[in-house]
Amino acid sequence: MAYVVPAPAIVSLPVVGSADRFPVRRVYCVGRNYEAHAKEMGFTGREPPFFFLKPADAVVPVPAGSVGEIAYPSLTKDLHHEIELVVAIGQGGRDIAVADAAKHIYGYAIGLDMTRRDLQGEMKKQGRPWCIGKGFDQSAPIGPVTPIAKSGEITKGAISLTVNGASRQASDISMLIWNVNEVIAHLSAAWELAPGDLIMTGTPEGVAAVVRGDRMHGEIAGLGALDVAVR
Ligand code: MN
User: Fold this and answer.
1) 16 CA distance to ligand 1 middle (Å)
2) Ligand 1 midpoint to CA 4 (Å)
3) 34: CA distance to ligand 1 center in Å?
4) Residue 8 DSSP label
5) pLDDT profile of the chain (231 residues), mean per 10
6) Which of 11, 61, 119, 128 is a Cys-bridge partner for 24, taking CB atoms 3.0 to 4.6 Å apart?
7) CA angle 72–74–76, rounded 5-degree value
8) How far is the CA of 1 from the centre of ligand 1 (A)?
């Protein structure tokens, strides 16, 4: 069997402590999952989790110890960083119970949910889909996956981002409105999860713009660091 056009490559992430890689199937994202960020975006309190997706090939894999590069995207004048804990699904399922959710996790990574905030804002105002604000090319730089066997379940720990050495975002994973297991439960009620799925779990407060030449440095306790330059 042959394809009539070139088949797309499988995007994959490096895995800490292994030469094998984590293949990416889908990239789910959670909106407004830290209270202080929900407030800075003009919302208050706890709402049911909601989701959007990025294409798998929007992922820019960043190997350990290297600086990833993304091109400043078209159409925007307000490209924002959102540092996020990324969950890598190892075992699929639907209607997964909160108590069983951790068994479905292969590991964790540090990711950036890059956002064309001006376009997202315009789409919100018009009641249109967020795709153009969130799902553009190279909108998801992500570092290596640390297996849960190595990290243990991540329920707390510092999450932070600096730009050119200056602090922009600093919070703790324990501040998630919907924790990782609850997110998996909600997501799997709406979609059947499968091995290779990534979940970007939401960003804390402090989102702001980056410009060409900026260097972002993200950290999550237990997962090392993620460095990405905007060119
Ligand atoms: Mn986000």
Assistant:
1) 24
2) 36
3) 10
4) P
5) 96 98 98 90 83 98 97 98 98 98 98 98 96 98 98 98 98 97 98 98 97 98 98 97
6) 11
7) 85
8) 40
